[in-house]
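Researcher: Quick sanity check before group meeting.
Model: Go ahead. Protein one:
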Amino acid sequence: MKKPVVFLGILVQFIFGLMPVNNGFAQKKPNVIYIYADDLGYAEIGAYGQQKIKTPNLDRLAKEGMKFTDHYTGTPVCAPARAMLMTGKHAGHADIRGNYELGGFPDSEERGQLPLKEGTFTVGHLMQQAGYKTGLVGKWGLGMNGTSGSPLKQGFDYYYGLLDQKQAHSFYPTHLWENDQRDTLDNTFINVHRALDPKKATAKDFDYYKGKVYAPEKMTEKALSFIDQNKENPFFLYLPYPLPHVSLQAPDEFVQPYIGKFEEQPYYGQQGYAPNRYPYSTYAAMVTFLDTQVGIIMEKIKALGLDENTIIMFSSDNGTTFNGGVNATYFNSVDGLRGLKTEVYEGGIREPFIARWPGKIKAGSRSNLISAQFDLLATMGELTGQKVENTDGISFLPTLLGKAKQQGKHKYLYWEFPENGGQVAIRMGDWKGVRTNVRKDRDSPWQIYHLKTDRSETKDLAASHPDLVAQFQAIVKKEHQDSPVKDWNFL
């Protein structure tokens, strides 16, 4: 009698195209929403210890889901982080390893970044194969319309937002893109990199950097529309909001509640990006605005009765920025971790990561699984019952479902970053190896830290651990593959 039961299980799995029957899921495919912040530091939301910026919705997401403490981006800047998230490759194998900028800032020079090449397999493609409708709303940075990197050619049925990261420097752009068509907004072009003279600037001069249509607001509008249109079918929605990446720009109604709460002085653009009269208040407002959008999405899912069949994930592409009027120290943005954006120290690459799935992910749970964003492809593969080939990732689905004993683990995580002098990092258990300034010094020494006892990477133990130095060297030799982009080959 066992054979018919086994056959029936296989038949059910085949018909629904879902996941192994023994996982005990409902047979309806779960929707997946992956929300990606831009330059949000490890501790800039309340769930990770933030004290000055209000993030009630993200805090609720964590209370109702699982918070990861040791989750990492693939690299510490925008475009390659997004590429690795989408393709499941680490920085030694990824096609895109740096911010390879094309064109310029004016609309007439919009050309985007180096596009994903034809034949790339993304999370979007994977979900399409499983019968999902796929949507991208937000900042892409992996190729313009008309190139091989257009989201329509990289696994997405629908997209809306910013294709060029340079256009994202203004939150009041003249246009966004929808399915390779230009969507003109009621904004005039703002040169956000025009500084003000501190001796002459008036309050009115700061108003130049304000517009009428706030791009993230439009993104939420389109995201809600995508959810509405696909509520009867399984969908995958990738929501990479451009917040809180500078320029410092936010609607007045979000800035006003913070004015007077911080010790701040006007920012005149001396470190790039738009000047702002209340830089700390505006930065906090941008994070709170992002949090509000998360709340809107959560409420929409609940209102449609999709709450228990929708996985919502939240993370950020890299650590807090160091310019544009942002003060990471003032907000304790990385919770005492060393480094910021563009650095492979923990503050540049360790990210908040929250996942919520009512009834499946235990509310208020916490995981210290050492994991990375390039694990998403493998995770979605297991979720949808598809075998994923050619990935550096390992599915963290068992951890989400409270099945820690079934969780595969990385022997190590590997980073190489061609910018900011050329850097390499490896995390192996509680040990972390870092090399900096490699572009100028091919023999730059390894720094070795024990993260369990020194999470801020202050005590270099390399001299007493030559065995680890040798292991790290061997890992680099194994994991690094030369890139067709010669400038990225610094090892």
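Researcher: Fine. The other one?
Model: Protein two, sequence then structure:
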Amino acid sequence: MRTFVSAVALIIGVLLTAVAVPAIWVDRNVVQEDGFVALSGPLGQDADFQQRLAAAAVGTIDTGAVPDALADVVRPVVEAAAGSLTGLPGYPAAWEETLRKSHRLSFPDPASPPAYAETSTSLTLDVAPLVALATEELARTTGLPLEAPEQTLINVGQPEHRQWIERVSAYAPLGYSLAIGAGIALALALVAARRRWTVVFSAGVGALLLAALWTYGSQLARDAVVATASGNEVADMFKDAFAAAASGSFQSWTAAAAVAGGVLLAAGLVIGIASRGRRAVSR
């Protein structure tokens, strides 16, 4: 009976872990704003993405207030602003604020203002901080009274992805409870086992299998995200780069699981050999 209870508890622990770890990663790196900014922040350092994003941001600046006589003068200044935007001292802060505003649109807090409470796509980039930075620089350079909009949205994904975001927001935080349950189940398996080394060994095997499963699953998820197209070049560049960054970040977790599995596997073997040696000596 003890062996049966131990086996069932071990299986439950492994299954709970299989769901808990990806859920915790998603909550920490996607659902939580600080994690999303930390994961997405390096994307703003990519030279090609920087240039395209800057061009898209500057291209939305409303120059309707510019007199026709000055249009030919202002046009090259606007074009030059796209190339110099990423070199401005305020660019890092504007990029971070862009990520934070975008996250609030995609993962709105129930207490957020209505402007942040609704969006039609899975992820919406609000590049208004970048547009404001470019507008400020243009106004300083030309002396014209230019005003930046409060929102400048670039949609990423498709409208049906809204349901995915809602489900992720609802279920990802449950990963912590599942992890606690997995820990309790594995502890029960260890306590109930007649030969505890078998539980340690089996847990190591389970961790290695989960690491392989998570690696394969993350690759499938990345390929699925990359395969979708939003119809906007900048949005697709962000989407593809974010998917690659997310996959790389999760791979560090799967690598840690593989290392832990190897350690448990070796520990189980050592404990098993030692226990057999003690039994042989006692006889």
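Researcher: One line on it for the slide.
Model: The longest strand covers residues 123-126.
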